[in-house]
Specification:
Chain lengths: 112, 513
């Protein structure tokens, strides 16, 4: 099992969700996050005061998958989330030791 | 110039002395209020009842917002003497509500949106606090001290005290009923006139809140405002609008400074704006000023508040005619033109300089335009209002955008940049643009000045207002600092005044966590 964490531009969420659903992926967790990479922030000006906003709003998608689906999923995410401009985000993949479905106590890949 | 200056200094010192006399007057009145009764005047012979022609004349006078009962008011007995005129009275009741609407919730939202999320309720509590505190002061003695006249028993012999404060006869709104007070209006009930003026007294200290936002103890705000009403506002209101006032050029033939101020450029905006500058400098900057992110937490609330201010301002400006007459209608038009032009000019300057016209720019320009037109709205032509609007979009813009950064004071929400600068600009421009073609009342006592040297009188009024506001604020803020302190603890300021001072949060959007 692997966990995929994808940080993407907020307006790309629908496309990424649909792309994953097309692969038969049945669930995911989404959160609104803030951060910055090479895109850096932007400046906002209120009357005479200028503020640099370092942290930009992004969406983080977390999904845990059986090993055989991981490459297909990362490919689908990168394709759907790409605009070609700086700030498109990143995808991280990491191993997951165990998964348990709370209702049935199923474990492992049966639970994801 | 030297003579001019010494005159103003004399006026300023006199005001301080007036403050002490006022305190004594308050104590005396509280002790003897129950025993004080208006003396019965020797009954004058009753003139004959009006005949049909005279009754028609009385009605025509109502339409013209003039007095009934013949040229001297005593030629015949009018059935409608002492009766409020329905139209004028209705407009002033609406106007009073509109001016309160400027504070609650207009200003509360305008300012509330501009502070950080953790301090929105503190701004709202301060606006609400003013509504309560100032109303109590107004009822007890404020209205009387501003609009009474018992300190000037003989109108032909003006005294310094009577030129600075009104009198004691209306303490606890004694005798302030449905009949008009013809010193101020022939057709508006005096009790409604007193409420209309109360709403101005509420918004003025509330404007100061903008400069000291996010870092002043609530108790200090209340104590400062209470003292400020007595030392600065009530003398200002009487001097400019009181029938025996020192600077009431329109109605007081014996005024030392023959200045004009239709709706409160000096009384409301200059006094609050300059006091705000001094108070925010004495208070010091917000913790983390210049380092931390202090952007407005909700430009949406700010815009909503701006719209309410603009709407409410029609009561403020057009209502200040104290009648639903042609002068009020002119003030309505000039107010609209100046506000719209200034809003547009401010945002277009941003567009030209920064490539992005901001909502805060539109809002700031609108408020600046409303401030600058306030003293002149009932005295100038619509075309002059457009020119005034252009000035209003440019001059405060420069102060707020450039000069504030150079001087480095922390006027959190730009009360000084908009209200003091705008109020001062408006008072001076009034001197140049006022014309008797718009307002025939300018011929009563000012025929020799209007269109000529009225601007010099306006400069004198500006100087006296500045002196009173600055000296008064230094004294009051020093007293408050010694007695209870001005600032909350660093912990409270960092956590936010909403929780620390009021025990509430502005936004609890999810109760599950």
């Amino acid at each position: 099992m692997k966990k995929i964490e994808a940080i993407i531009k907020p307006f790309k969420l629908e496309e990424v969700k649909d792309a994953l659903a097309d692969l038969g992926i049945e669930g995911m967790t989404v959160s609104e996050v803030k951060g910055f990479g090479r895109q850096k922030g932007h400046t906002e000006i209120y009357r005479g005061s200028e503020y640099t906003v370092d942290f930009l709003p992004k969406i983080k998608i977390e999904v845990v998958l059986p090993d055989d689906l991981v490459v297909k999923a990362t490919t689908a995410i990168t394709k759907a989330a790409r605009t070609g401009k700086i700030g498109d985000g990143k995808v991280f993949v990491s191993p997951v030791d165990e998964a348990i479905r709370i209702r049935t106590e199923e474990t492992g890949e049966n639970a994801v | 110039m030297r003579n001019l200056f010494s005159q103003q200094m004399a006026g300023g010192l006199g005001v301080d002395r007036g403050g002490f006399q006022l305190l004594i007057a308050v104590i005396v009145a509280l002790l003897f209020i129950a025993t004080v009764k208006a003396e019965d005047a020797t009954p004058a012979p009753t003139p004959p009842a009006a005949n049909m022609g005279q009754r028609v004349t009385d009605l025509e006078q109502y339409f013209q917002n003039a007095s009934v009962g013949g040229p001297t008011g005593t030629t015949w007995t009018s059935k409608i003497a002492g009766v409020p005129g329905p139209g004028h009275n209705a407009w002033l009741m609406i106007s009073s509500a509109l001016v309160l609407f400027m504070t609650l919730p207009g200003l509360a939202l305008f300012y509330g949106g501009l502070v950080r999320q953790k301090n929105i309720l503190s701004v709202m509590a301060q606006c609400l606090g003013m509504a309560g505190l100032v109303t109590i002061i107004w009822w007890a003695c404020g209205y009387s001290l501003a609009f009474g006249s018992s300190f000037t028993p003989d109108r032909t012999k003006p005294s310094l005290l009577g030129a600075i404060l009104g009198g004691t006869e209306y303490f606890f709104l004694n005798g302030v009923g449905g009949a008009p007070n013809t010193d101020y209006s022939y057709w508006v009930s005096q009790n409604i006139f007193s409420m209309f003026q109360l709403m101005f007294a509420i918004i003025t200290p509330a404007l100061i809140v903008g400069a000291i936002a996010e870092r002043m103890k609530f108790s200090a705000v209340l104590l400062f405002s209470a003292l400020w009403m007595f030392i600065v506002y009530l003398p200002m209101a009487h001097m400019v609008w009181g029938v025996t006032g020192l600077m009431n050029g329109v109605w007081n033939a014996t005024a030392s400074i023959k200045a004009i101020d239709f709706a409160g450029g000096t009384v409301v905006h200059m006094s609050s704006g300059w006091s705000a500058l001094i108070l925010c400098m004495m208070l010091g900057k917000r913790l983390g000023f210049g380092k931390e992110h202090m952007a407005p937490h909700s430009m949406v609330l700010c815009m909503v508040g701006t719209g309410m201010l603009w709407v409410g301002w029609y009561g403020f400006n057009a209502g200040s005619a104290l009648a639903a007459d042609g002068i009020a209608a002119n003030a309505f038009v000039t107010t609209t033109l100046a506000a719209a032009v200034a809003s547009f000019v401010w945002a277009m300057l941003e567009y030209a300089i920064r490539k992005k016209p901001s909502v805060l720019g539109f809002c700031s320009g609108a408020v600046a335009g409303l401030v600058v037109i306030t003293p002149s709205c009932g005295f100038v032509t619509p075309n002059a209002a457009v020119i005034i609007g252009i000035f209003a979009g440019i001059v405060p813009f420069i102060f707020v955008m450039k000069l504030k950064g150079i001087f480095g004071y922390d006027d959190a929400l730009d009360t000084f940049g908009v209200h003091a600068v705008g109020g001062t600009l408006g008072a001076i421009l009034t001197g140049f643009f006022a014309t008797a073609d718009v307002n025939a009342n300018l011929k009563t006592n000012l025929a020799a000045l209007v269109g000529k040297t009225l601007w010099l009188e306006q400069l004198k009024a500006v100087a006296l207002t500045l002196a009173l506001s600055i000296i008064g604020t230094i004294v009051i803020a020093s007293i408050v600092k010694v007695v209870i302190g001005l600032r909350p603890s660093e912990e409270v300021e960092t956590e936010g005044l909403d929780l620390g001072e009021h025990g509430e949060e502005g936004y609890i959007l999810d109760h599950r966590v």
